[in-house]
Structure formats: C-alpha cells, structure tokens
Amino acid sequence: MKPGRISKLLAAVLAATLGGCALTPNYQRPEAPVAAAYPGASAAAGPLAADIDWQTFFSDARLRRVIDLALRNNRDLRIALLNIEQARAQYDIRRSDQLPTLGVSAAASRTPTTSGGIASSYSVALGLTAWEIDFFGRIASLKDAALAQYLATEESRKATQISLIGAVASVWLSLLADEEQIDITRQTLASREESVKLVRLRFDNGVTSELDLRQAESLVEAARVALSQWLRQRALDQNLLTLLAGQPLPPEWLTVSPAGALAGAGVMADVPAGLPSDLLAKRPDIRAAEQQLIAANANIGAARAAFFPRISLTTGVGTVSNQLSGLFASGSYGWTFAPQLLLPLFDAGRNQAGLESARAGRELAVAQYDKSIQSAFREVADALAGRTTLSEQLRAQQAQADAEAARLRLTDLRYRSGVASHLDLLDAQRALFTARQAVIQVRLQQLQNQVTLYKALGGGWKE
Question: How far is it, in rounded angstroms, from Cα 323 to Cα 108?
Fold first, then answer.
C-alpha cells in the first residue's frame, strides 16, 4: 500500500475515533409495494381482526378447547419457541462481547539454563485477555443484528400461532362438513334402497322393465361409494386435527350432531378489513421480515468496521516469583499492560467481499420484505373477494336445492301416477343429492373464508 494511501486511512481512523462515526447505514422502512386500499373493500366500523381474541372470534366451546390444546402441545409451535431461546442465547453472546472478560491465571515454568541450572518462574494474576475496544462499532453492529434476529424469531412464533389457530379452525369446520355430508348421504342411501325395493316389486309383477331396476341399483351403489368417500375423509380430517393438537383428542370432543353442524359453528361473520398499512403493524410475518431487514442493515455496519483497526487490550495484576514459596511474599507484585492494534493492509479482498455480501444480503432482505407484504395483501384481497361473493353463492345454491327438492316431490307424484318415467325420477334424485352436497360445500367455503380473512388480517395474536 502506498504511503499516501496509508496516511489517508490513518486520518480516517483518527476522525472516526474522535468523532465516533456510525458505520451502520441509517435504517429506513421501504415503501409498501401495494395499493393504498384493498380492491372492493368498504369501510366498516368495529375492532380490527388483530385486536379480537381468538376466544371471542370462535364461540364453539369444543373448538376453543381444541385450539387451546394445540397451543400447548403442537410441535411446530414448540419448535418456534425453541428457536426463540436459541436466538436469545446468540444475542446474549454478542452482547457479552462488548464487555471485558475478567479471569484469574496461574502459570509455572522451569527452564534449563546454559550454566546447567534450572530457572523457575511462578505467577498468579487477575486481568483481562484480548478485550476488543469497540471504537468502530463492529461488535455493536453484530449485537444489533443478533437482537433483530431474536426479535424476528419472536415474530415468527406469533405468525406460527396465527397459522396454527387458522389451521385448527379450518380442519374443524371440514370435520363438521364431513358429518353433514355423511348424514345426507346416509339419508339418500336409505331413500334409494327403498326405491329399489319398490322398483324390484314392480319388476317382479311385470310392471316395469329390468332397465329401470338396474338404474335404481346403480344409484344405490353410487350412494354407497359416496358414503365410503366421506367416511374416509372424516377419518383423514380427524387424523389431521390430532396432529395439529399434538395429542389424541377425547372422542366426545369429536362427537357432533350432523344436522346443521356448520350453521352452528359460531364463527364471527365479519371483521373490518382496515387498510394495507395496518398489516405492517398487525401481521407478525411482515414484522419478522422487517426485523430480518434490520439485521441485514446492521451487518453492513459490521462489514464496514472490518476495514478499520481492531484495538484489543490484555492486562493483568498479580504476583511473580522465581520460587513457589515466595509467590505471595512482599515485593512480588507485578503487572502487565499490552494493548494491540491490528490494521488490515492487504487481505486479498476479503473485507471488500464481506461488505459486498452484506449489501447483497440487505437487498435480499428488502426483496423478501416486499414479497411478504405483497403476499399478505393478496391473502386479504382474496378473502375479501370471497366474502363478497360466497354469501350470494350460498343463497343461490340453497335456492337451487330447495327447487330440486320440490322437483323431486312433483316428479315422484307424476311417476306414481304413471305420467313421468322412471328415468325422470332418477334424474331428480341425482340432482337433489348433488345440490344438497353443494350447499354444504359452499357453506364450508364461506366459513373457512371467514377464518382465512381473520388470519390474513393478523387475527389470533394480541399483544
């Protein structure tokens, strides 16, 4: 390195030391890369979703018990808690680096001399060993980065809790829908079995053809297929709910009355959407991404400080003697003071590469922060779109089911009167069964959409 460049570097070191320059860039929150309002959202009064306890949002006592059990036993949440403990320990390590380490040292040596004797030396000292004086904020920047990482893991735990509550509620609603589907499938199967008995009697008496009999039997077997599918789906949902809860659930918790199970689910109908700016303060996953950005920003300060000298201090106070018996005798007092300065002059570009890596890490954190905001915005917008359309869809689907029920009654009367064909009757039965299944599915989608909106707005966690 040229003498002029060395003098400039030393001048910069002196200026930084005397002026206490901050090498970490000033943090500024990036602009949110989303619109100022959700598409199609209307202003609504009331508390925001993030300010509503999940115990209040879900009124079903059994669902609240399952959620409480999951919060105490779920393994994903337990992993998140352990990640917090690990991050907190890492922060404590970085914080302790700012303080000197005080210790006691004892040493003894015996060395042959040229005269044929043995030279002995004994010492006991209390002092500091290689304590780095953080003039340029390298250790402070690393501590700030570790603190931000710790806060990010805490926010991630909150996000995990919100996701867990939403998942438990969604699976619980699916389980209620399974019970309703099983109930109407069993009703349909029983009705079709009675219809087969009537058709077989008519066939035995030569009133109807074998084609009508085989068509009726086909509908019976189709209902049995559907019943097996829903029984399997109920078992799968129960297994998933057990996994989320972290332990087997008592059977009485899973025993529900199939009639109107979803209608009595007790989910709050509407929560105000608020503004996208509210997500920055209410969504823990966005706050976690911002803490990661703060940590990346602090890493730039540590990378910049690597270009400046590292000043360390080793000192000790104790006793020294050439005889063990005189170690603590009068006049054996001794001390050492050894400051050390290490100024990087040539490192083959290591420090520059470290700085470039830190800057790239910050840009990556910015991109991840923007993506987390955009993903949250889309989740809320999708849920709002569902809230706008699913209510009307459910109303229309229920009206269709009512019309199909009336159609089946009229077709049955016409069939018994000999006006309608058996094929017309079978078609009306199939249409009603399909319409009733669709009503349950749409109602399930509506309730799960309410849960999704509550979760997307940060509901499930309250400071």
Answer: 10
Residue 205 CB coordination number (10 Å)? 8
Same domain as 123, residue 224: no
For residue 20, what is the enclosing H or E element?
Answer: none
Q: How far apart are CA 122 and CA 291, in angstroms?
A: 52
CA distance 281 to 277: 8
* Alpha helix segments (H runs only) across 26-127: 54-57, 61-73, 75-96
Query: For residue 371, what is the DSSP state?
Result: H
Helix (H, G, I), strand (E, B) or coil at 57: helix
Kindly provide the b/e burial profile for residues 266-286, where b requires at least 16 CB atoms within 10 angstroms of the residue's own CB: ebbeebbbbebebbbebbbbb
Q: Which two tokens stand for residue 55?
A: 């115990």
Say yes or no: 234 and 369 in one domain. yes
Which residue range forms the structural domain that includes residue 66?
A: 45-98+136-308+356-456
Q: Is it the case that residue 13 has pLDDT exceeding 50?
A: no
What six digits make up the tokens of 395?
């109303």
What's the one-letter identity of residue 378?
Answer: R
Residue 7 is predicted with a pLDDT of 46
What H or E segment, with its residue span, contains residue 112? strand 102-112
Q: Are 131 and 100 in contact (CB under 8 A)?
A: yes
Instruction: Tell me how far apart the alpha carbons of residues 447 and 262 are, in angstroms, rounded to a whole number.
Output: 8
Give the residue, 410 or 326, on which the prediction is more confident. Answer: 410
Give CA 339 to chain center in angstroms: 48
| Same domain assignment for residues 238 and 318 | no
Res. 323: pLDDT tops 80: no
How far is it, in rounded angstroms, from Cα 401 to Cα 228?
Answer: 23
The whole-angstrom separation of Cα 165 and Cα 149 is 24
- Which whole number is the average pLDDT over 313-322? 82
Give domain status of residue 397, yes or no: yes
In a domain, 19, yes or no: no
Half-sphere exposure of 49 (CA within 13 A, CB side): 28
